[in-house]
Specification:
The structure is a single chain. This protein is of the alpha/beta class. Helices cover 39% and strands 22% of the residues. The chain folds into 2 domains: 100 residues, 2-Layer Sandwich (Threonyl-tRNA Synthetase, Chain A, domain 2), CATH 3.30.980; 65 residues, no CATH class. The strands form 3 sheets. The protein has a 4-stranded antiparallel beta sheet with strand order 3-4-6-5. A 3-stranded parallel beta sheet has the order 7-8-9. A two-stranded antiparallel sheet has the order 1-2. Helix 6 links the parallel strand 7 and strand 8. Helix 1 packs across helix 4. The longest helix has 15 residues. It starts with a strand and ends with a helix. The model has no long low-confidence stretch (mean pLDDT 91).
């Protein structure tokens, strides 16, 4: 659904956060796992897990469509994903947290954005940079995808070989390496 807010257009692709919260509670019961969601953790724990402090941490708590969480018990990821899908949700694993969204993921969002850009510019090149399994749908929605290293120097083993060009460097260094590679293309 698209709506104009202050002269800007906003397109909502997923289910709102309250429904996602309710969905996670139901999902945990169906799939038999316990969890702690982002908004249930203390500021100290969130800061320790994310490295964020102050305003950055407070901004990260503003959730509209995506609920990050940790699983506190054994949980079969494949079973959780299957049950989430049957409920109309999307379950994935990011770099630090699991995520539940209401039927939307990075690939859907990027796909919508690329369609909108192509209305005015028919031949743009779209690039994605990421480091985790939850980036895979985004990688599949663009022309060129780059996988950066984790802080320990490894690449996420859940990303299939050939899904993205591997670049050296974690975090900002990896992103810079990917951007430099794009800028050096003829």
């Amino acid at each position: 659904m698209a709506q104009e807010i202050g002269g800007e257009w906003r397109i909502s692709l997923g289910t709102g956060i309250e429904q996602v919260r309710k969905g996670l509670k139901i999902l945990s019961g169906k799939a038999g796992f316990s969890y702690r969601s982002f908004d249930e953790m203390s500021v100290e724990e969130l800061s320790s897990l994310t490295g964020l402090t102050g305003d950055e941490l407070q901004d990260s708590l503003i959730r509209e469509y995506d609920l990050p969480f940790v699983i506190d018990s054994d949980g079969d990821e494949a079973d959780i994903a299957e049950k989430a899908d049957k409920m109309g949700f999307h379950f994935t694993r990011g770099g630090r947290f699991y995520h539940l969204t209401g039927g939307c993921h990075k690939g859907k969002a990027v796909g919508t954005l690329t369609e909108l850009y192509r209305i005015k510019q028919p031949d743009p090149v779209f690039v994605a940079i990421g480091d985790s399994f939850n980036d895979l749908p985004m990688f599949e929605a663009v022309d060129m995808a780059f996988l950066v290293q984790k802080p320990d120097g490894t690449y996420d083993p859940a990303i299939p070989e050939g899904a993205a060009v591997k670049v050296r460097g974690a975090g900002p260094r990896g992103w810079r390496a990917a951007v430099e590679e794009v800028m050096n293309l003829d």
